[in-house]
Amino acid sequence: MASCKQCGTEIERLFRFCPWCGQVQRLKLTEFFFGHAGIEGSRRALRISRYFGDVDDERHVRFSVWSEVAAGGAKVEAAVSLDENEADRVARFLITSDELSEAETQTL
User: Fold this and answer.
1) Helix, strand, coil share of the chain (percent; to 5)
2) Structural domain that includes position 23
3) Among the listed residues 51, 43, 49, 16, the one whose alpha carbon sits nearest the alpha carbon of residue 31
């Protein structure tokens, strides 16, 4: 259990909003990235969610792999949460590897 950030009422940790006062309990940004059409045989996507919070334990980035199932539904296949330092490291890896790729292309 947790306490509402606004009214202090005890609520479930999973609640995104307080059922008593309506206050948002956690904020997140989410984006979907579709798998490479030439590599992925089925329709799959990567969902990345960045969670914001007042304390370190609340702040993290979650990567989850989703696949399409019958009737247009979707299911999560795997998920992992990274603390902010590891998420920054992923971002640096993507930026640096892209810069390396561009530099190699220019020298050819």
Assistant:
1) 30, 40, 35
2) 2-107
3) 49
